């Protein structure tokens, strides 16, 4: 039990909708008489639902800090023991202590450890976990009145929780704590940059644009990695270079040993330039941020893209453009070196491309089969037990149609990718020469060189002296 968490809503950023919901809970705890006067009851429980690292635990502590009430925190797994009855006893003790400190908050993290759907265990329902859950259900809405005790719980798997736990009267509210959008990421970066010395050229809004899909925990880790990198390099401030390197490290892995000059290095250069050219010349794709031959993780080279908008909604055109860009590396290998010289370097690209194409057909209804979902939700559930028990009711004919549609999308994209490579061979050769010399090309340098060779692209890029110098070398 913490009498004061020391955390307020000012320490929580990027999840404004969830904060608004919880401001009401704080008002309940501070001035219950205001709501009692109009016949309102304090909610018994609030369930926080969202991916890992989005700030569910931090938000719970902030509610207790704002309200100035005691904060009981524990994990769902702490109830469970090998001895039957111990978990139920701990639940009773927890609520007895909480009632003595009323009004207060009880926070149960990872409640799915104890709140899983009953009846899925082997050997009947009389096991320790189910007894613990039964006691929790009784305490939250049983014969005893728990006035002033609000239960907060967090989980990233709400679909496996018992329906009796989720009904009104126990968890009256479910608050979604999702991944932050671009504005939310910028606010989170501001919070985690307060105690760090940033160079004046560092723009948090640009960093927020470069980190789609990052959670609050990942953004905090990003700024910490950048600070460690700046210290290692003997700098007194964090520059954009440290932040860029930290993003690359988090997404792709640690920097590997640079390749020596040779056939493999040239092949990787053509592969990466193939990705970048096909992405740039296909309408709907995000712009290239940089192309590099510096290995990271399992990748021998990398092409980075910068999202134009927050990728919460993606169009059919954008998905198809990603498939064309993903096949650009393999297309470059085949056109330039010949089919016998194709390598295993495109294995990851092909896996990603196939997954996108299959989702277009089966989940998003973006094929000639029609606008309907072709996969049972239980089959694609994150719960292993549900996936094992689910029956796939798809007919053989429909499975064949799906495979044919996926194959058609990928073949069409591959033909477009090969056409881009054939039509821009001079530009690709020049780009590869520059990339082999510099090992990293920025997006502006790449687009500038491509614009000098491609009539289709030349009107979209302003030339500068540095790019002309690169081309004329």
Give structural notes.
One of its GO terms (biological process) is proteolysis. Its cofactor is Zn(2+). InterPro entries: AAA+_ATPase (IPR003593), AAA_lid_3 (IPR041569), ATPase_AAA_core (IPR003959), ATPase_AAA_CS (IPR003960), CARD (IPR001315), FtsH (IPR005936), P-loop_NTPase (IPR027417), Peptidase_M41 (IPR000642). One of its GO terms (cellular component) is chloroplast thylakoid membrane. The protein is an alpha/beta fold. It contains 20 helices and eight strands. It has a five-stranded parallel beta sheet. Strands 7-6-8 form a three-stranded antiparallel beta sheet. Helix 4 links the parallel strand 2 and strand 3 (104-109).
User: N- to C-terminal separation?
Assistant: 69 Å
| CATH structural class of the largest domain | Mainly Alpha
Looking at the overall shape, the CATH architecture of the largest domain is Up-down Bundle
Overall domain count: 3
> How many DSSP H or I helices?
20
Largest sheet: 5 strands, parallel
Helix content: 40-55%
- The radius of gyration over CA amounts to 28 Å
Across the major sheet, the strand order is: 2-3-4-1-5
Q: Give the SSE order as H and E letters.
A: HHEHEHEHHEHEHHHHHEEHHHHHEHHH
Q: Topology, pairings included?
A:
Layout: H1 16-30, H2 32-36, E1 45-49, H3 56-67, E2 71-75, H4 86-100, E3 104-109, H5 112-115, H6 128-141, E4 149-155, H7 163-166, E5 173-176, H8 182-192, H9 204-210, H10 216-232, H11 240-252, H12 263-281, E6 288-292, E7 302-305, H13 316-337, H14 347-362, H15 384-389, H16 396-423, H17 425-438, E8 440-442, H18 443-453, H19 455-458, H20 465-472
Parallel strand pairs: 1-4, 1-5, 2-3, 3-4
Antiparallel strand pairs: 6-7, 6-8
